[in-house]
Amino acid sequence: MGQHVSQQSGAAQARRERERAARRLLARGLLACLVVGAGLVVTGTASEAGVRVAGHAHAATYVGVETFDGVIGVCTGNGRAAPTVTTPPSRVHAPVAAWALHVAGPDGSGLDDTTGAAIATIVKNDPAVPSNHKNATPDVGVRARVDQIVAEAHAYAGPRTLPLGLTSTSPTPGQTWQLTGVGIQAPGAWMPGRAIDLAVTGPVVFEASGTSTITVTSTGEPQTLHLRSTGNGEFTVAGSTTVPSNHVNSHPAQSPGHQMITTRVGDEPLTGATGAQVAVLEHRPSAVTNTSVLTVAEPGTEVHDRIAITGARPGSTLTGRSTLYGPLAEKPTESAEPPAGTPVVGTAEYEVTVDETGAATVETPALVLPAPGYFVWQEEIDGEPDDAPSPRNLGFRGRYGVGTETSLVAPPPDVVTEVSRQEVLVGQPVSDTVTVVGTVHDHDGLGPISTVLTGRAYGPVLPVDGSCEDVDWREAPIAHEFGPLPITGGQKRLVGVGEFTPRQGGCYSYGETLVATNSQGEPIYRVDHEAGRVEQTVLVEVPEAVTQISSTVVEPGGHFSDTVSITGTGGASGSFVAALWGPVAPDPDLGCWFGPARWAELIAAGEASEAHLEEVAFTGDGDVTTTDVPVTELGCYTWSAVFSFDDAPGTELVSAPGLETETGMVAAPEIATVAQASTTHLGGELSDVITVSGTQDLPGTVTGEILTAPPVGGGCDAVDWSHATSAGQIEPIPTVTDGVHTSSTTVIDGDGAVCATFVVAWTPVHEKLVGAAVVDEAGLPAETILFVPDVPAVPAGSPSASAFPLWLVLGLAMAGAGAGSSIWQLRRGGGGHA
């Protein structure tokens, strides 16, 4: 109350200051509608735009109010012509002038001239009112009325409120109430005479009317009304009224020589409301409950019901109970009561005294969660008897299946895995199939459960005796990680998880972890499926190929094929593209075996052409041979092979051209020989003229042996040289190219006639070309001479010595024509070549 008096005292002082300011304005002289034109001052009349209502005439002007289009107003701007039209207005905040025009009423009916002149005086001289010519307004003897209206403006104009408030008046809060501040509080006083409409929202009525609405008239003091509750719940009280506006309408001058017009603005709405309060007719206790266990992995856990009670009669003692239902296969659906036949674990009884606010928290005695599945509490609070004093506590029964009341016992399921293949080759993808065996729950009482699978593929680890069964996985590196992958009650089998492509050989094994987390982010269980089990382990093999050309040396018209021994395929199928390259000239020192790098250069330069190309399919490990490829041109040849695997597109195996085991030669060396003697008598010297050709400029050696045997039938044609006697060796003759060579001489002697012949061979120096050696036959006519005692030697088979010159010439002619013999003698060489 003291605060209210202080506010009124300050407002009164401000009002007195404003009154003194107004009197000073009047003391300077008051002017009204002055019309100035051509240097003359003329008495003004009502403007053509307005109709006079009330005011006083003056020698120079008229001081009063008029109606403009039916609205009370005043001309402003002394010394200008009266307006002839009403221009569109703008709203101006001018509380004192607005209050003065409010005193005139909507149309000025019943207004006396003194009040009309006072209103005009206030409006014309209010600094807040726009004017285009502020001359002093003449004093027309209305100062007392001006002071009275200005004082009212200071009291009632400006900010106004409906300061409604509620206070409970009953011993038990919430049954009866007192509504205070019913009135219009203005800056200097409570405004009287205004109708205030009050309305209650909620279970409360006004005592005076017995209804939720009432209308009162404001007075010079705030009023108090009483209310009572008719039920339980929140309520508010709202009030509405109208008050004079603090604004005026300012109409601009129609031209610079005309006055402006200020007109009245009608009443404006004013509202107020209380804050929300709680009404109580009967106490209705309610409970918010939470189970102590949301999720647990194993049965046997104790569980409590935690009950937060509100709304009871303060200080009262309540009894109640909570019943635990379960186990249930599915999360219970919320309903008023449990379905018939729902299993029950037990009931926990309790008693609790609430505090002065009607609240209490209680934890029931424990029950045990006996099995897997869902369990749910349903609570009940006993009400007081009907004849208990008012307000009594009513009973309460919670709903069945509430999420906060639900517990879940979720034992961990088993995890079973199976790798996609237990033996693969490098470059083939590997994955795992995971099956979760057991129940996977998707929800607990408060929301979804997250069950996720993560995993790793470990490896590579070296096999033990070619197997992964006894591998130690403890220090195995991680080859691949995957997850988290969701597991749900409807999706418990994942196929192809953790797929990756091993790039190294060795043992790999999957290990998985299954983790379930409840809706609050708390773990329920973790299942670790360790790596190393046979069914989730794979041996990754590295394919290898050993290639072998069919022959090291062949003659023109021979064949080359390539045999490939493939291992480490892991049973995979595929193919290889085999290419035969050549011919190219051999190297004098290296023959055809000058290595992959040189062969690659020759192929890139186009000097080694592709003689043959084919694709050969294979399945798993084993030997595969290409077709036989005929070769006719002399020179060096080599095979190459590029392997690919049907389901391992990134894995390739290459056998490069020029490998030693893949290279061969087409060769056709020849030797032609002619024997010659210093004499055909015994004791003569025998030598051989040897022509070597077709060596392809490979270095080699000419060797030979002289054989002797008795003549048959007087000649050498029928001699069996397999029983001949060696008469010695010729000295080896090195060769570097084709050419003609003469052997060392050998003396042929004996006791009687003897046939002598040469057996000559040419052998390449390079060890891999031994198959290209050429050897002539013993006893060839051009190679054989008959030596006789004391008579001239004649060619083998000649009947008499007299024919010697002819036979010698014939023998030399045969030699010159290439008489002799050259053959291929193919020998099995190292590495399986022939």
Describe it.
There is one protein chain. With 834 residues, the protein is mainly beta. It is built from six helices and 60 strands. The protein has a six-stranded antiparallel beta sheet with strand order 3-4-5-17-16-6. β4 and β5 form a beta hairpin. α1 runs antiparallel to α4, α2 (95-104) packs antiparallel against α3 and α3 crosses α4 (143-156). The protein is elongated, with a radius of gyration of 65 Å. The model is unreliable at 1-46 and 792-834 (pLDDT under 50).
Task: Report the principal-axis shape.
Answer: elongated
Low-confidence stretches: 1-46, 792-834
**In whole angstroms, how far apart are the ends?**
130 Å
Mean pLDDT: 86
Strand order of the largest sheet: 3-4-5-17-16-6
User: Structural class of the helix and strand makeup?
Assistant: mainly beta
What is the subunit organization of this protein?
single chain
Helix content: 10-25%
Largest sheet: 6 strands, antiparallel
Q: Which percent band covers the strand fraction? A: 35-45%
Rg computed from alpha carbons, rounded to a whole number of angstroms: 65 Å
Total beta-strand segments: 60
Helical run tally:
6
